[in-house]
């Protein structure tokens, strides 16, 4: 009889444990909400400018440079001719199905050339605010994400056999590229990558205790979307639209009475201090990047004006 009770107890424990390690599905980034959420972080000013404090240049950030219309398309070196760069850009587009989405135009070389385009914000997505709390949660940052089960992307194809992938980074600055497959279809489609190393079965997991506070809570940050074009495929202009990216994962910390008993950060402020130091360093690097970015942006605008009307020639 004891073995019967043992089996029942094991089943109950397995069900309970599986519930503890339940999978959460949340929006990683939704491009229709991106501009609104970004503007909320920059109440003033609208435009970014450089000021001097005791002879040291410093960037005063405005939201305008961070909006979707200022995202960049970077071509790989063998495809990054001036004309291709000028004719590759992104902008918000209205969709009847989803509302505002991210519109992407890439001008690939017309000759046989394996190449790719990286679509990304002009500056890295901000992870922490000045208080050390997460910024841009579900707006390019997924906090408290431990094991990733699946990632999906809503994308609109135009029957071009190009490939699409997503690049993201973790708390240790490690970059991972998620491959979704071909865009050889017309209209909206939800492409999903499923982690082959993930299991829902608790008894199959390799469980171990992991240090918590003041170790940073695991998170993932949006880095870029990549479009790959094989040399055997059609070159020239390519257009696609992206609605959002979703992530299914198990949380690193499960909210319960124990974890909520004492607010570690309010007592010690370790993460806040680290966040402030990291932000100071980021601001210093950002000042240099903004100066170069504004110069390049101005130069590209001049080149674009010189190319109008476009004569259709492509290297």
The number of strands is 14
- Beta-strand residue fraction: 35-45%
Portion in helices: 25-40%
Give the domain tally: 1
Distance between the termini: 80 Å
State the shape.
globular
CATH superfamily: Galactose-binding domain-like
Secondary-structure element string: HEHEEEHEEEEEEEEEEHHH
CA-based gyration radius: 23 Å
- Class derived from helix and strand content: alpha+beta
What report would you give on this structure?
The structure is a single chain. With about 325 residues, the protein is an alpha+beta fold. The protein has a single domain, classed as Galactose-binding domain-like (Jelly Rolls, Sandwich). About 25% of the residues lie in helices and about 35% in strands. It has 6 helices and 14 strands. The strands form 3 sheets. Strands 1, 5, 6, 9, 12 and 14 form a 6-stranded antiparallel beta sheet that branches. A hairpin with a 3-residue loop joins strand 5 and strand 6. The longest helix has about 35 residues. The N terminus is likely disordered.
Brief write-up:
The protein is 25% helix and 36% strand. The chain has 315 residues and is of the alpha+beta class. Strand 5 (89-95) and strand 6 (99-108) form a beta hairpin.
């Amino acid at each position: 009889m004891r073995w019967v009770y043992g089996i029942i107890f094991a089943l109950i424990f397995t069900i309970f444990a599986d519930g503890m390690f339940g999978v959460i599905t949340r929006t990683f980034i939704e491009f229709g909400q991106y501009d609104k959420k970004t503007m909320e972080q920059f109440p003033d000013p609208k435009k970014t400018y450089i000021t001097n404090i005791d002879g040291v240049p410093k960037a005063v950030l405005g939201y305008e440079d961070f909006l979707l219309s200022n995202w960049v398309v970077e071509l790989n070196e063998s495809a990054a001719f001036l004309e291709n760069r000028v004719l590759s850009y992104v902008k918000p587009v209205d969709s009847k199905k989803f509302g505002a989405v991210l519109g992407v135009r890439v001008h690939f070389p017309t000759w046989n050339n394996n190449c790719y385009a990286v679509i990304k914000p002009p500056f890295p997505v901000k992870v922490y605010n000045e208080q050390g709390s997460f910024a841009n949660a579900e707006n390019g940052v997924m906090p408290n994400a431990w094991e990733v089960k699946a990632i999906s992307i809503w994308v609109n194809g135009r029957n071009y056999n190009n490939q699409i992938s997503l690049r993201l980074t973790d708390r240790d600055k490690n970059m991972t590229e998620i491959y979704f497959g071909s865009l050889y279809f017309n209209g909206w489609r939800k492409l999903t990558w499923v982690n082959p190393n993930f299991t829902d079965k608790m008894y199959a997991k390799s469980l171990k205790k992991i240090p918590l506070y003041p170790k940073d809570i695991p998170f993932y940050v949006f880095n870029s979307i990549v479009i790959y074009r094989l040399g055997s495929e059609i070159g020239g202009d390519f257009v696609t639209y992206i609605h959002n990216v979703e992530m299914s994962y198990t949380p690193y910390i499960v909210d319960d009475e124990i974890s909520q008993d004492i607010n570690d950060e309010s007592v010690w402020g370790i993460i806040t201090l680290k966040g402030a130091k990291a932000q100071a360093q980021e601001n210093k690097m950002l000042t240099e990047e903004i100066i170069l970015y504004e110069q390049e942006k101005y130069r590209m605008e001049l080149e674009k004006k010189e190319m109008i009307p476009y004569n259709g020639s492509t290297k």
